Amino acid sequence: MVGTMEEFSFVSVDSTRAKKRKPESQVVSILNHLFVNTQYFKSVDTGREYTNSDTSSLNFAKVGNFTSRSPLIKSGPRVGLDIGHLLKSALAGGISCAFSAFLMHPVDTVKTQVQASTTLSFIEIMSKIPEIGARGLYKGSIPAVVGQFASHGLRTSIYEASRLALPFLAPGLHDIQVQPIASFLGTVLGTTLRIPCEVLKQRLQANQFDNILEATVSTWGQDGLKGLFRGTGVTLLREVPFYVAGMGLYSQSKKLVERRVGRVLEPWEAIAVGALSGGFTAVMTTPFDVIKTRMMTAPQGVDLSMWMAAYSILTHEGFLAFYKGAVPRFFWTAPLGALNLAGYELLQKAFVTVPLDQSVHSD
């Protein structure tokens, strides 16, 4: 019988000893020292203590696979969850997504301006890039990076916790069911956390404000807290299918390719699969993205609902307008998908590369 989460009991202790370290391994060592130090787990039934060396420690498969061994610590009929693994997952997800968001922000700005405009096409916006300039292309990058780091950190940690706990809490679930459920839970909570940053980012990208302080003060003063969460419903309708379908498509495509080639995918191959999976699901969810952009960039004080925005687009611009910005969205999301999926796995692997009995301190 599997115990509940309240019955988990653990005490973290530092068992590392000070040794001299090479400069090039300092960063990974610090992260290992902070997030994956030795854990002692105590069974609430028997009182017996377990360490990572006694049980399933943090071992990760080659890039292209998720963890090969679950960091759930079994202690008799009780199961303990490795909190260090979840913190590491949050950091890996947050860093990979924040980096990819900053790198691809100019493409996202072009996409936003195409979708926010009722007259300008993708080609016309592209012709204005010299006029927009580098500074204009990176408007809104601060809330974009902060939002991606916080939301994807939360999303990946909840995803990992759910993916590891669900098979124990609901043994009847199959692998193909566990992943979508875990991805759904992580996406809903992570996306909700990011909505205010998304509103500020898109209003800056659409040139409604000059800086993030002005955007925040004006939005709060005009619409209050509701204004910062404008478009939450349609954003969830975009994000949940995107991440659930994207994660499932990535996982199943990777397995299919591995069966065809008869080996584990190399890092560049996993990145290619992640890019195609992300790009394809991005195109599928573009209509929700267009509606979200129109709602978030609507004039302050105007109460524009999702259905009103959809009706206005359909009647004034036609059905194809729902796919405005699909091209830049594909090229923005393909590298994003590659970095979010394969890059996330690379960071997970890197965080546990250095042995845990080595410390970051020097003599």
From TrEMBL:
<dbReference type="GO" id="GO:0016020">
    <property type="term" value="C:membrane"/>
</dbReference>
<dbReference type="InterPro" id="IPR023395">
    <property type="entry name" value="MCP_dom_sf"/>
</dbReference>
<feature type="repeat" description="Solcar">
    <location>
        <begin position="84"/>
        <end position="165"/>
    </location>
</feature>
<feature type="repeat" description="Solcar">
    <location>
        <begin position="265"/>
        <end position="350"/>
    </location>
</feature>
<dbReference type="InterPro" id="IPR018108">
    <property type="entry name" value="MCP_transmembrane"/>
</dbReference>
<keyword id="KW-0813">Transport</keyword>
<dbReference type="InterPro" id="IPR002067">
    <property type="entry name" value="MCP"/>
</dbReference>
<keyword id="KW-1133">Transmembrane helix</keyword>
<comment type="similarity">
    <text>Belongs to the mitochondrial carrier (TC 2.A.29) family.</text>
</comment>
<keyword id="KW-0812">Transmembrane</keyword>
<protein>
    <recommendedName>
        <fullName>Mitochondrial substrate carrier family protein</fullName>
    </recommendedName>
</protein>
<keyword id="KW-0677">Repeat</keyword>
<feature type="repeat" description="Solcar">
    <location>
        <begin position="174"/>
        <end position="256"/>
    </location>
</feature>
<keyword id="KW-0472">Membrane</keyword>
<dbReference type="Pfam" id="PF00153">
    <property type="entry name" value="Mito_carr"/>
</dbReference>
